[in-house]
Design goal:
This protein is of the alpha/beta class. The chain contains eight helices and 17 strands. A seven-stranded mixed sheet has the order 5-2-1-6-7-9-10, with helices on both faces. Strands 12, 13, 14, 15, 16 and 17 form a six-stranded antiparallel sheet that branches.
Length: 313
């Protein structure tokens, strides 16, 4: 490439921030950053800029926040930026064909799974919920499909027993940024050839729904433990106790069977709160009552009259 390379970046949440830092540290020009419009957040519901916008503004990079890129007006600033490469990381808006065809080197995306497994909106949490032993992040050349483009490369990571959706999110964000940095010069030079995704092993990671947070105590304890882990830090697993909604932040599955009805508390001590399940027992280690903070179980039981025989629903 004979001229100074120009890169555009499209991303919104924390997951995209490490990748943007890689671009800001590169000699190429970051011609602009595209991110979703500010959203109401916090108790005051005041508009809050995305993490990507905050970093871009601090770096002095032009920021664009169209509601859509599907109209010519929404794409106007991107056309004017004339990027050689568009890097997309958790942007959250549809990229129509005219955008995909705009950069000379195309559009690349970091996706937090080992494609073609877990295409879609929530690959990290779905991997945890499914009990996957390994996951990763892939650098993909974007096409018109849903995470169907050919892949330049992947980074793999084991899913540890104590991993949560949050810990995997942070690890994959950093590994994805490293993957991007390792390939950026070759992407700009146009010397990389991506490999088509396998036709076998395709699964879809549907978007998280807050209604999925409710624990069904008739399920296997191992399934519930994975649900708790996957939904930490959002939307956080929930259960009802005496009309109070409790949030469950950490738990572990235990093999002990109980004759008690599912949802019945069978033990309460500093080691944990044991709850009978359809199969096995779920031991709760960290809980949160309405209006309170997250508490380890020893602190929680000191402040709440939870006893053996209580029922969770």
């Amino acid at each position: 490439m004979s001229h100074q390379a120009r890169i555009a970046f499209a991303g919104t949440p924390d997951f995209a921030v490490p990748a943007l830092r890689v671009l800001l540290d590169h000699p190429a020009t970051v011609a602009g950053v595209w991110t979703q419009p500010d959203r109401p957040a916090g108790r005051g519901r005041r508009p809050r800029p995305s993490p990507v916008k905050a970093l871009a503004e601090a770096a002095g990079v032009p920021v664009h926040q169209p509601d859509t890129l599907t109209s010519p007006a929404g794409r106007e600033a991107l056309v004017a930026a004339a990027p050689d490469l568009l890097v997309v990381v958790a942007y959250g808006l549809l990229l129509p064909r005219p955008v995909l065809e705009l950069p000379a080197r195309g559009c690349v995306n970091l996706h937090a799974s080992l494609l073609p497994r877990w295409r879609g909106a929530a690959p990290i949490q779905r991997a945890v919920m499914a009990g996957d032993q390994e996951t990763g992040v892939c650098l993909m050349h974007m096409d018109a499909g849903l995470d169907t483009g050919p892949v330049y490369g992947c980074r793999r990571t084991p899913v540890a027993a104590d991993d949560t959706g949050g810990s995997l999110h942070d690890r994959l964000a950093e590994q994805g940024a490293q993957l991007l940095g390792d390939n950026l010069d070759d992407l700009l030079a146009g010397v990389l050839t991506p490999e088509p995704q396998p036709a076998e092993g395709v699964t879809y990671a549907r978007k998280l729904d807050k209604r999925e947070a409710r624990l069904d105590w008739s399920a296997d304890a191992a399934v519930l433990a994975r649900q708790v882990a996957a939904f930490n830090p959002w939307p956080v697993a929930e259960t009802d106790w005496s009309g109070v909604r409790l949030r469950i932040w950490r738990a572990e599955a235990r093999a002990e069977e109980s004759t008690a009805l599912p949802g019945t508390v069978t033990a309460v001590d500093a080691a944990g709160i044991d709850v009978a399940c359809g199969r096995g027992t779920l031991r709760l280690h960290e809980l949160q009552a309405p209006g309170g903070r997250r508490q380890p179980v020893d602190q929680f039981i000191n402040g709440h009259a939870l006893a053996v025989g209580a029922r969770f629903h």
